[in-house]
Amino acid sequence: MSSTAAQTERGARTEYGVAALGLGVTRALGGFIAGLRFEDLPPAVVHEARRGVLDWIGCALAASRHPTIRILLDTFEATGSPAVATVLGQGGQGGKRLGLLDAPVANGQMGHLLDFDDTHMGGVVLHTSSPLLAALLALAEHRPVSGRDLVTAYVAGFEAGVRAGQGAPAHHDGGWHLTGTLGAIAAGAGSARLLGLDATQVTHAIGIATTQAAGMQQNRGTMCKSFHAGKAAASGALAALLAARGFNSSDEILEGKRGFIRIYSTSSAPERITDGLGERFEIARNGYKPYACGIVLHPLIDAMIALHDSAGIPAAQVARVELQVHPHAVKITGVDDPKSGLMSKFSINHSASVAYLDGTAGIAQYSDARAGAADVLAFRPKIEVRTVETFRKDQAHATLVATDGRRFESPVAHASGTVDNSMSDAALERKFLGNATEALGEDRARAVAARVWTLDEAADIRDLLALCA
To answer: Are residues 241 and 220 in contact, defined by beta-carbon separation less than 8 angstroms?
Structure first.
């Protein structure tokens, strides 16, 4: 072959749509996850994993009797599902069990349904635990799993999901719901680590999970939003089970020419996926929600609750409230007139109103009844919102103007529950007990909390799951 012909052939190969780039990003992530051991985890990371498990179980239990979950479980019963893995909070003799890929759907949806679950905001806005832990807990009934193994897999999956998002900076801007997309990656990687797969198998599990990644922001405020988390959990569990049996995928699924960070985002940063891998653990920068709604609403809720406590002006004497927020707050939660409890979780006007009127923003403030309550409907038009480009996402400022002209101000530098204003262990346990007690009773709820705080000492976590049934 002449030199000209050879150059032409090489050029044709490099133009091939999925030609290898040779960056090795997905393989590096897969190798790291396969090799991660509990002993590699700093004590603070282990403790953060305990906190994440406690918070997520509570959020799932709080939603376990929601009508959405009843529809889902009735459908699984109608279509047939083998009794293999525990569904949280269903009660009855032996609880409720579903198939190995159906239980993650139910538990994952429960965890995210009330929008009360943890949120990582380090370059992504990701509810990592709902898809990840739902997959891990189901697989823990497929084979015995120790608390140490669960913690290690949880940390590993957290790394994969968050870092994939950091490598795709414009992913959210494309309309994707990150808990569905990145959640599948997290669940696939964590599940692969839980099953003890080797580096090649973990890489393939990441690829199999990533090719299933889905979830659209258009479904905010509907039953589908939390369904994304459940489907991501099932996709991740399936990916690991397939990879364990030799099912393969591209080993450049994240960074490849047609890989995740190229086609799910208009900009890509593959180097961020492996930056500080093994030195910095993303779970250590996780955040926990004191309020049952979109995380970008939390700064303004803090501000409104502070006004409720300090100003003490009756609602009828409030002329208006001037809110300054990060632009994302309007972009993500700018629903002016929510008609349901689920939709009200994405309404600045509603959240600001209930926070001032009720002095809190818990599960009850985002019910269908509260979304249509007369006092809330009367207060919503008083909320005036202005975006401030220089604000951080966890920052807000509220000014209340009374009908007699008095002004009260409330600045919030960092929202409650974020890394810079973190929730204490005691506060996190109070939140858990508030979420779990109705489903389990107080004694069992306290027993679950005690087990989770010593999770890494458990020989088999099925005992914990039995308490949560």
So the answer is: no
